[in-house]
Design goal:
Elements: H1 7-16, H2 23-35, H3 38-54, E1 56-57, E2 64-65, H4 71-74, E3 79-86, H5 89-98, E4 103-107, H6 125-134, E5 139-142, H7 148-161, E6 167-170, H8 186-194, E7 197-198
Parallel strand pairs: 3-4, 3-5, 5-6
Antiparallel strand pairs: 1-2, 6-7
Helix pairs in contact: 1-2, 5-8
The structure holds zinc ion.
Length: 199
């Protein structure tokens, strides 16, 4: 890495801080970017800036969006009485890709993890409870990952919701233990949804 200095070294360092990008990949990407026509590199830099500056959290479901409300929440044809609770916007995208789920979502942006010091107040649970209190919700489908953190979060949510009497279900364990929703194929996702059980 010390063979390079100045701006190229800075670029390599920045890229290598991205998740899943090691030192070698960072070098490869940096040289690729340098070899591109200047306007292409500018477009890349601008798209990063624009995304960072303009993306916000949906006022309803807390997913990332560029308006006040995400396209799912803004869609009146969706069933707004059914909320699927997921950990990340990527999990939301995985279920959206199946095209079969007609309800809306709630994105927690994480899961409860005593080991990592992530408590209920560190994820978007308050926002979920506020929705449940102010909207007519028939069912909450807890679709957190089947990791220890995901299960802990699911149990916590079910206890939280129980007094309200709202039907709370958990997706079936067609999703492998420790599996992230985003890496699971559509058939398994839909089977997990169909086989959900009451918490
Ligand atoms: Zn939304």
């Amino acid at each position: 890495m010390a063979y390079f200095n100045g701006p190229i070294q800075v670029l390599i360092e920045q890229l290598s801080q991205l998740p899943g990008i090691g030192a070698k990949s960072a070098q490869r990407l940096a040289f690729y970017i340098i070899a591109q026509p200047e306007e292409k590199a500018t477009r890349l830099a601008e798209s990063i800036l624009s995304a960072r500056q303009n993306v916000r959290y949906c006022t309803e479901c807390c997913t990332l969006t560029d308006g006040d409300m995400c396209p799912v929440c803004a869609d009146q044809k969706r069933d707004h009485g059914t909320i699927m609770v997921v950990e990340t916007p990527r999990d939301l995208a995985a279920y959206e890709k199946t095209g079969k789920y007609k309800g809306v979502y709630h994105v927690l942006h994480g899961a409860i993890s005593p080991m990592l010091g992530v408590g209920p107040n560190d994820i978007r649970l308050k926002e979920l409870m506020k929705r449940l209190a102010s909207e007519e919700i028939r069912e909450v489908i807890v679709a957190t990952n089947s990791s220890l953190e995901g299960e802990t979060t699911a149990m916590y949510i079910s206890k939280l919701i129980k007094p309200s009497g709202i039907r709370t279900t958990r997706i079936a364990s067609g999703v492998p233990v420790g599996g992230d929703l985003e890496n699971i194929d559509e058939v398994t996702l839909l089977r997990a949804l169909d086989g959900r059980t009451v918490l």
